[in-house]
Amino acid sequence: MKSGRVDPEPVRADIAAEKFATIFLFEDMNLREHNPDPEVTTFTESQIQEIKQHYRAVAHVAGPYQDGIFVYRPIGQPIGQKPL
Length: 84
Known about the structure:
Mean pLDDT: 84
Largest sheet: 3 strands, antiparallel
Strand content: 15-25%
């Protein structure tokens, strides 16, 4: 395994193109903390902005994590339509 910096641009571009059928997060993008817990994996600021622009929250699942799991689907995908 190699360590080092990962280029976030390909993932940001895929988010902007709504290539992910579903995104699961441990935080609500609309109520995001300015200083999130560093032990919780998250996206870069540019990726988060793309999620806010191209995805909508469709579910909140109470779960084993403090705030549960937030489920996001592409805005271009009609509500109720199953992902391909």
